[in-house]
Structure formats: C-alpha cells, structure tokens
Design a protein that fits this description.
Strand content: 5-15%
Shape: elongated
CATH class of one domain: Alpha Beta
CATH superfamily of one domain: Gcn5-related N-acetyltransferase (GNAT)
Helix content: 40-55%
Number of helices: 22
Distance between the termini: 49 Å
Membrane topology: Multi-pass membrane protein
Main location: membrane
Largest sheet: 12 strands, mixed
Keywords: Cell membrane, Membrane, Transmembrane, Transmembrane helix
Subcellular location: Cell membrane
Structural class: alpha+beta
Protein name: Phosphatidylglycerol lysyltransferase domain-containing protein
Mean pLDDT: 81
CATH architecture of one domain: 3-Layer(aba) Sandwich
C-alpha cells in the first residue's frame, strides 16, 4: 500500500467518532440508545415498587383502584396487584439483561395499551381528567424509549422457551387456580355460588386484590384468601415468565472435532497452564478465536457462562477467543465468569472489561528443588518413614499401561471411596477416570502389607514434563498420612517418568491464613482469618493449605474473573453447581447427553492413538 494511503486511513478512522459513521447511526443517537434502554428498566422497577406499596398500603391501593375504573386509567402496569408487581420486577430484570423476547413482550402489552389510551382521550369523559393525560404521557414515554432503544435488546432466548412456557402456564393455572378455588369454596360467605362464579372470582383475584373481583356478587371470601390467591397466581405467573425468558442452556458436550483440535493445541502449548488438560472435560463447550490458534472452554450453568483456567493455545490469539466468548455471552444474555485463571490470563481478561478477585493459590512443587533432608522437612520425613515401615508400597503407572481388569478394579475402588454420591469438580478435575483417551495420565496405586489397594491418586499431563493432580481417593480405614506418603513417593521418583514439576491441590484463600497469622496483621485480616477458620470445621479450607504447605511448594495465585460485582453471588452459585457442591434435578435427556458418549469416545481414542505415533499427544515423558 502506498505511504500516502497508509497516512490517510488512520486520519479517516480518527474522524469517524466525531461525525456520522459509515453505515452507522449518528453519534447522538448511538449515545441515546443505551440511555433509552436503561430508562425502560427504571420505569419497570418504579412500577414494581409502586405496586408493592399499593398492596401494602390500603389508602394508596384504593386510590389506584379508583383510577382503574370508571373514567380513569393508570400508567402501564400500575394495577396495585402482586401479579403486576411480579411482572414489572421480572421484566426489569430481563430487560436489564437486554433480552429481545422481553422487548417484544413489552411492546405487545404497552403498544396496544397506548393506542387505547389515545383513543380514550378523544372522548370527553376521559379527556377532562388530568390524571389520564399523565398516564397516557408516561405510557407513551415508555413506548418511545422501547422504540428508541430497540437495537440494544439483542440477547436471544432458547428455542424451546415458548413450548415450555405453555406447559408451565397450563400447569400453573391448574394448580394455583385449583387451590384458590378450593379456598374460595371453603370460605365463601354468600350461599348459592356456582362453580363458575368461584373460578371467575379466583382468576380475577389473581389479577388484583382490589374491587375487580367484587363484581361477582355470589362470592365473598375473607381478605386472607384474596391475598393467598393473588400470591399463588403471581408465583405461577413468575414461573411462566422464567420459562419465556430463560437463557439458552448452551452446548453441553465437547464435540469430537473440538476435542481433537484442543489436544493438538495442548501438544504445542500445554506447558503454559497446569489446568489446561481439564479443558477436555466433555461437559464443556469450546469457542475458538478467529485464527483457530486459541480456544476457551466453558459451561453454561444457571445463565452463567463459566470458563475455567486460561485459554488454550497461543497467547497472542487469546484476545480473539476472549472477544468471541464475550460476544456469545452478550448474544445470549449470559453472565461471563472465569474460575481459576492465572495472573497472565487475568491481565488479558481485564483488558476486555473483566474484574478480578483472588481465589487462592495453587501449590506447585519443582521436583529438582524437593528434598526430605533438613529440619524443616523432619515431620514430613518421619510420617513418610512411618507409613513405609507399616508395609505400604506405591505402584506408579500410566493409564495406558494398566490392563483393563486392573483399571476396572481401580474405578470400582474409587467409586466406593468417593465422599458423596456423584463426582465433583469442574475447573480442576477431569471427571472420567479410566477413559481410554486419557492413557497419558499417571496413576499412583497404594497397597498395604497384604497387597490390598488402600488409596489412589490420578494426575493429568501438564505439558511434556509436568503433572497436575486430578483425583484423590482413599480407604477411610487406612493408615493416617497415606496421601502424603504417595505424594512424596511421586516426587522422589518423578524423574523416572520425565516429570519436572507437579501441581497439587488448590488452597482457597491461602494468603489470608498465611498473612493473618503474622505479627502485625490488621484487624480486618485477622477477622477474615477467624471466619475462614470457623468454616474450616465443615469445609477443607485451612486443612488444604496446611496439607500442601508441608511440601514447601511455589504458590501460584488463581483468580475469579467477573464483569460486575453484583453478579458475584450468582457466579458463586453457578460455580458451586458446576463443581458438584450444589445439585439440582436435571432432565434425563440432558443426563444422557452428558454421559452417553461411548461411541464418540472410541473414535477419539483411535484418533489419539494414531497421532501418538508421531509424538503429538501431550504428556510428560
């Protein structure tokens, strides 16, 4: 390109934000759109608050009801009922997340209502009341804000939402309407009411606790029944709204082609991140950079797109993968979050608008620096010698070298020794012990003096010369210190496998325990340490730190990355669900999708075996 053209192009790009952009809206309109979208959210929040106040305040409720009958009308969604309050609050939430379906829903309700108000104002009976003009003006401003900010609402929903909403709505009406009708029948103070009267009264009470249902002269129920019916139908309505606007669940299986491409990236760049191999979990999906040189693996849990570890591949291509992942999150109204990112990846994520919170530290042992000699290692050395004198031995093998019968026996033992009914782990666990595609993993099997298996450890590859802890299982009746004995045996014999570094457990909030116990620690840090120590009675928080500190590791910080601080509680719940600490019922079809990939696994195995002859499979040694 000529030098003059090269000089002109930057100048043109610099001038575009100050004038009309090519093919885009004028700058003032581009600035006005997000403000108009935000205005619709605040309008809905205000209406939710006013409806709740009207339900709780009798004078205000009667005033609203008076303006909803006769020659008066109120602004959009101002009905003094819990259903309207729930609707306004829910719509405010989904509009804040820029759901396209929520925008359409509001337009279908507010648009015809505004047209009706305009038509009513042509009549003398309605035109002479100033409040009607205010109601029409507020509704008109809301519709205008919707139209002005329509392009801000781009988030799509799940294709199955309409069908699910119909099912939930039918079931909700049957259940809440049935319970309400029974309550009305049992407490009706007027004799001679028909079933039709009772059902009509129940449905009208679901809309409002005001005089709307008083037109049914044959029914008069106590006030507590009216409120109960209104709450039941409001709850059912909320469920319908959730079904309408829920975020797409996302792809739950790692595709065969994606897995092969990820393994190729790990073969070239796997030494960068000790958590890289866990990207091969098959309950994750992969999104790629435009160049295909980097990828982010994630899983959608409760509307949170949860990535783990660092992006896989060339760091120069990480920004492209991050941009694609964030764009997909915006398109589906998912909340983006990353668990366990390193400082290097966290810095790049921060350039794309994510904030960071230090979760804890990963314990990494350099094999060359590890030794049992010295006074500092006396306790560890004594524990190792005690277990060895008790007759325990450790057998170290790669998964690919373990016969099928032995692997089946180890899997059966691991399932029996598991603490809980299901596998846990997402960011730092593979969750598929014994899969043939993972034959480069390393298994440590510990047997007692009689040759009985008592514990096992499984490690995944970390590049060509590293291992990362995946699984720890032991018999509860075995000798104390057995896990420490196995880790030390691995560190002492690691060079036989060509292993130079080993990543052990992750210590949550390690810095708090370390710094909080030092002389001169501030009151806030000491208080935070006391709180964590208290909760360590039920969860292994401090014990994990102490258990790993005895190996004198290098501590590598890991971070939680998020977009907004208000999303942290939601991200925490999603993380707990992904890691297996919180469980919710799932559809059998989804369960089958996650665990019914045997045929595809065999194809991956064949591909990995064919590639291994060329030395492309990641793994130490």
């Amino acid at each position: 390109m000529p030098a003059q053209q090269q000089a002109v192009i930057p100048q043109q790009r610099a001038r575009r934000p100050q004038g009309a952009t090519a093919g885009g809206p004028p700058p003032f309109l581009a600035r006005l759109r997000p403000r108009a979208a935000a205005a619709t959210v605040w309008y809905l929040r205000l209406q939710a608050l006013l409806n709740i106040v009207a339900v709780l305040s009798l004078p205000f409720r009667e005033e609203v009801h008076e303006h909803n009958v006769g020659e008066y009308f109120t602004p959009y969604l101002a009905t003094a009922g819990l259903v309207s309050a729930a609707l306004a609050l829910f719509l405010a939430m989904v509009m804040r997340r820029r759901k396209r379906a929520a925008w359409i829903f509001n337009m279908l309700l507010a648009g015809p209502l505004l047209a009706l108000y305009v038509l009513a104002l042509t009549q003398d009976a309605y035109r002479r009341h100033a409040f009607n003009w205010i109601s029409a003006l507020l509704t008109g401003l809301f519709v205008a804000a919707l139209l002005l900010g329509r392009k801000e609402f781009r988030a799509v929903g799940d294709r199955s939402n309409p069908r699910l909403a119909l099912i939930v709505g039918a079931c909700g009406i049957l259940v809440s309407g049935g319970i309400g009708t029974l309550l009305v029948s049992a407490t009706n103070q007027v004799p001679g009411a028909t079933l039709t009267d009772k059902v009509a009264y129940t449905l009208l009470r679901g809309v409002s606790v005001g005089p709307l249902a008083d037109r049914i002269d044959a029914v008069h129920a106590p006030r507590w029944v009216d409120i109960t019916v209104n709450v039941l139908i409001a709850a059912s309505f909320l469920l319908v709204l959730y079904a309408c606007f829920r975020a797409p669940r996302g792809r739950e299986l790692l595709g065969e082609q994606d897995e092969q491409r990820l393994r190729a990236l790990l073969a070239r760049h796997g030494e960068r991140d000790s958590l890289g191999y866990f990207a091969l979990r098959r309950d994750k999906a992969a999104i790629w950079s435009p160049s295909g040189k980097a990828a982010i693996t994630y899983r959608v849990v409760g509307g949170v797109t949860l990535a783990s570890g660092d992006p896989i591949g060339d760091p120069e291509a990480w920004p492209g993968a991050i941009e694609e992942w964030l764009e997909e999150a915006r398109r589906h109204a998912w909340t983006p979050a990353v668990m366990g990112a390193s400082e290097e990846a966290g810095t790049i994520y921060a350039r794309h608008g994510l904030d960071a919170l230090e979760l804890g530290d990963e314990a990494i042992v350099d094999v060359a620096d590890f030794s049992l000699e010295g006074r500092a290692m006396r306790v560890v050395r004594q524990a190792h010698n005690r277990v060895r004198r008790a007759g325990y031995t450790v057998h170290i093998r790669r998964h690919g070298d373990i016969p099928e019968a032995d692997m089946a026996a180890l899997i059966e033992k691991a399932d029996r020794w598991r603490d809980g009914g299901s596998e846990r782990g997402f960011s730092m666990a593979l969750g598929r012990l014994g899969d043939p595609a993972d034959d480069s993993c390393v298994m440590l099997e510990c047997r007692d003096g009689e040759g009985e298996p008592r514990a096992l450890l499984s490690f995944v590859p970390w590049g060509e010369h590293g291992l990362s802890l995946d699984l720890m299982r032991r018999d509860r009746d075995c000798e104390n210190g057995l896990m420490e004995f196995m880790v030390i045996e691995l560190l002492l014999r690691a060079r036989e496998l060509g292993v130079e570094r080993v990543s052990l457990n992750f210590a949550m909030f390690r810095a708090v325990f370390e710094r909080g116990s030092r002389l001169g620690a501030g009151p806030v840090l000491r208080l935070w340490r006391s709180v964590l120590t208290f909760f360590s009675r039920w969860w292994q928080i401090e014990s994990l730190y102490r258990a790993n500190a005895k190996y004198r590791p290098v501590w590598e910080p890991r971070f939680l990355l998020f977009e907004k601080s208000a999303d942290i509680p939601r991200i925490g719940i999603a993380s707990a669900r992904a890691e297996g600490f919180l469980t919710v019922p799932s559809l059998p079809s989804l369960f089958g999708r996650r665990h019914g990939a045997a045929a595809r696994t065999e194809r991956v195995v064949e591909h990995v075996r064919s590639e291994s002859s060329g030395g492309k499979v990641p793994g130490p040694g």
